[in-house]
Amino acid sequence: xxxxxxxxxxxxxxxxxxxxxxxxxxxxxxxxxxxxxxxxxxxxxxxxxxxxxxxxxxxxxxxxxxxxxxxxxxxxxxxxxxxxxxxxxxxxxxxxxxxxxxxxxxxxxxxxxxxxxxxxxxxxxxxxxxxxxxxxxxxxxxxxxxxxxxxxxxxxxxxxxxxxxxxxxxxxxxxxxxxxxxxxxxxxxxxxxxxxxxxxxxxxxxxxxxxxxxxxxxxxxxxxxxxxxxxxxxx
Length: 235
Description:
Oligomer: single chain
Radius of gyration: 19 Å
Order of helices and strands: HEEEHEEEEEEEEEEEEE
Structural class: mainly beta
């Protein structure tokens, strides 16, 4: 059991990845008692320690529970590795924000933490995951092969912004939640809570053999809704 703000702020960092943590101690009967997380659309997370000595009223607890399970809420998740990824899902639209090196290509594959969607007895009949590859100002969507580049598929993303800050490129795109074809990944705001990822980093700006890769995961929570930390992974 989390007993104080120090434990709360430390526990948050083991449960949920964030682009930035904002630790706040409060005394507010409109928030859950104890430790909770409140994710923001930019991938940051406010960690709240509510110091109220008494239990939150049943009305407040019920309101928080209903809000966190509302399928019309925007869900937000952040993941980090070779690439920083923030995904926001709202009903039929997804916003994807990627940050990677400006002088190399980088990519994120959705729905698998490896180069195979469904490994069966050392065979990979369905190939690799759907991936978004950033090559400078260009974005290419691919259906990866098992340890191979796969094929280019129809573009479903629309670039909203692309900028360079220091050595990093920050690119924001949107796409429909439903995949354009069976080769595209589909997001579901009513069910999505965790999405495995695979990330890769190129050796240069031209798409070729990667120079680093690894798994990660997106853990979705409702945007700007306090979620008790036990619901986010600590009982």
